[in-house]
Specification:
single chain; 79 residues; mainly alpha; 2 helices
Amino acid sequence: MQKVFNLLGATAFLMSGAMVVGTLVLYTRIPSLTKYYMSELKLELTKLMTDMVPAVDDVMPELPSSTGLPIPSSVKSPF
C-alpha cells in the first residue's frame, strides 16, 4: 500500500510541476500569440471587406465641372 501512495504522491508532484511549467510557457508566449492572431484576423477582415464593398471608383459620381451662382449677401444666416 505504501508503494501506491508513493506513486500517487510522485504523480501529483509531476502533474503540479507540469502545470506550473505549462502556465509559465503560455504566459511568456501570450504577447507573440496575440500579435500573430490579431494580424491574421486583420488580414482576413481586410479580404472580407474588400470582397463585400464594391470598388469606390465605380460607385462615386463624377464631380461637377462648374458650380451655380453665389448666394446673395442679402440672405442672412440665422446663426
